[in-house]
Design brief:
The chain is an alpha+beta fold. 39% of the residues lie in helices and 36% in strands. Strands 2, 3, 4, 5, 6 and 7 form a six-stranded antiparallel beta sheet that branches. Strands 1, 8, 9, 10 and 11 form a five-stranded mixed beta sheet that branches. β4 and β5 form a beta hairpin. It is elongated and about 85 Å long. The two termini are 61 Å apart.
Length: 250
């Protein structure tokens, strides 16, 4: 009986040692895994990359207007209708297509006589009527030239006022994908150089965030937190920004 009891005690001791060893080993493995996970999540390098490209506008919006002033409203409208006919005939003769012309509704203002202090009285002096004509076209160069020549309408007794053309680029969705890919590549290259300076390497990308798209005049590098979209220039410069974080490997 004594020998059997001693054998059981030995077995219990061995089992306890095995459990203790297993506990120590599992704790070591778990702690090592936690350390590795912590390094993977915390030891990162965050950089900002950029890319730029020169583009040429492929769409133009040009607004112009004309007015008439007359003591009689009906006569003012009649004169304005004549002016509209002259403007449309002029644009069509220059090669603008009918479906590229948008004519706004007529706006009417009542003009009152002034008193000796320069204030309006209740007596009507006349009426001011005006209308806006808008040209939207993919033929950017042609419409730009017409906008510069349009003062010729003054010779036809049209009180014509030409606005500054607005220039747009219609392939922005495709361009954004291309530019953001290049900006991310630039961010990776910067991260690699920064890591190499400390004897490390970068690993997998941990996060990426698109910055604001900047579309400026060709000679401008303006950057704003809400993004730029210049419409005053025919030639433009596009700047894409990307923020990325990479894991660091020793």
């Amino acid at each position: 009986m004594g020998s059997l009891s001693g054998l059981k005690n030995v077995q219990i001791i061995i089992l306890g040692l095995c459990i203790a060893g297993a506990t120590i080993f599992s704790t070591f493995v778990l702690s090592k895994g936690v350390i590795q996970f912590k390094r993977l999540t915390e030891e990162v390098i965050t950089v900002t990359g950029s890319a730029e490209k020169d583009i040429v506008s492929d769409y133009i919006v040009w607004k112009s207007g004309f007015t008439r002033r007359n003591p009689k409203l009906k006569e003012a409208y009649t004169q304005l209708q004549g002016d509209l006919a002259k403007v449309k005939k002029y644009l069509l003769s220059k090669g603008v297509k009918e479906d590229e012309i948008i004519v706004s509704q007529v706006e009417t203002s009542t003009l009152y006589k002034k008193n000796e202090k320069g204030n309006d009285t209740n007596e009507i002096e006349g009426y001011l009527v005006s209308q806006v004509v808008e040209v939207r076209s993919y033929d950017v160069e042609k419409v730009t030239d017409i906008s510069r020549q349009s003062t010729e309408l003054l010779d036809q007794d049209v009180q014509f006022i030409s606005g500054a053309p607005e220039y747009f680029y219609t392939k922005l969705p495709e361009l954004k994908i291309e530019m953001l890919a290049k900006a991310t590549e630039n961010a990776k290259a910067r991260a690699e150089k920064m890591a190499a300076s400390t004897g490390n390497k970068i690993g997998a990308i941990r996060s990426a965030k698109m910055g604001k798209f900047q579309i400026n005049a060709a000679n401008s590098y303006d950057v704003s937190w809400y993004g730029n979209y210049d419409t005053s220039s025919y030639d433009k410069k596009v700047i894409a920004i990307a923020h990325a974080s990479f894991a660091i490997e020793e």
